[in-house]
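Sharing a chain and its predicted structure for anyone who wants a worked example. Both blocks are below, sequence first, tokens second.
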Amino acid sequence: MSVNYGPKRIVVGAHYGIRDWLVQRATAVLMALFTIVLLARVLLSSGPIGYDTWAGAFAPQWMKFLTFGVIISLIWHAWVGVRDVWMDYVPAAGLRLVLSIFTIVWLVGCAGWAFQVLWRL
């Protein structure tokens, strides 16, 4: 009979910790910087702030790519957080699997919709 104590102990799932912590922080910083850039871009524009100003802020191709990158960051950020909630608070493995699949489908759908909206402007 083997005993799994000490440095040779097998730990399942612990490898998520530091990577997910870093992902949460990196994506949050990226989203905060993007918000500052977007607000500066809109607030420093001349004239009243309306639909034309917002559409003009997203008109350049580089802004569309940057925005979509931030949307992907937001989706990754949300996935890590929601997955952790499902793992921590849903004890039934089957229900946790269904909720995880629903979350993935929802987030991929949101990314597709965001892509459609960005390139329709």
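Comments welcome. Residues 61-89 form the longest helix (29 residues).
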